[in-house]
What does this fold into?
Amino acid sequence: MFSKTHRGILEKHRPELVDEVDTDSLLPELRKRKLLTSRQEDKIKLNGQRVRAEQVEIILDLIPRRGKHAFDDLCEALIASDQERIVQDYLKPDILAKTEEEPPRKKARKQDATQNDEEEDMDEGIDINDGPISVRVHQSTPEFYEKKFREAYPMCVPCRGLACIINVKHVVGTDDRAGTDIDCENLQHLWVQLGFQVVVYNDEDDLTVQGIRDKVIQFAAEPGHQRAQCCVLCVLSHGENGAIYGTDGKLLPVAELKYHLDAKRCRALKDKPKLIFLEACRGDIADTDVADCPSHADFLVGFPSQPGYKAWRNCKKGSWYISAIVQVFMELAATKNIDELMTKVNNIVSRKLSRSHKYEDCNKVQMPEVRHSLRLPLYFFPGITDEDGC
It folds into this structure.
């Protein structure tokens, strides 16, 4: 595990590192030491289009995820790339002051190398980007489909199903939810590429509590569900524990969203997976680092945080939770089921740490939660179709 001491050093000197580190010479050295995967290195470079300061920001966000020796390896990489002065000016004095807190590496290094390899395997194939997302869903192979489809929910018609995105930007009496339009756009691209027909509602479409309720009821009554194999509902708003806000400042219980889509009221979705993703706080606590089938069957509800806790959102990049969902799904849905995808989302979001000009909003964390009553594995099998459409 990356130590708090080293994390603090990187945070303390982040402005200097962003201004002075030369990424052209550093990236190959980081790759040699397995601090970056080849995919991560390529995405950081982005064909030379990303400015150097942004590259350094991404590197500094990645280093704490690369194991207990990542800080020392970073220092070695800087020295090997002729940037020893940066180590001496910003990192080495802090290291010397804290040597008693760091155990000697000696022979333990070989054992930890295996742990680092495991971590690289975990991150190989997915590079979580804190900047703009270019949504491109990887496709399943016919061989993978043949191996998995018998054990999973059916998921092969060209139009997998219907997806509804409810994007509440302004709730009366609160600040605008800056960044929510980015989440909305990314989700729209994701579900379209996964084979869904998507409808989006924004504030101007009447997203009061009653307006949201009406749209969910209308969505549940869509005839397209009859031929579909899955449905998706995403609600982006402010919230409290167990409820989300409409633009009028009133609360709509999350349970009501499930109520309108369950097998008793929406027979067309009987035995089909119904996915609900929420991006809304569940309280005001800021987590700090330290029918002939059961009517409630086949649901998955993804919450961005634990009951009572806040969910964090960047006004320029979107929310932690939705960004992780979009990137994990587009990279891994070709070969992973939704349990595996959501576990990966949980892991990624849980490792993030907030930074803000407001002291009270610094060093905050977030732990998502998934609740489901799915009865089979759910694979999206992107790119796999049969002869029938929705």
Remarks:
- The longest strand covers residues 161-167.
- Confidence is low (pLDDT under 50) at residues 94-127.
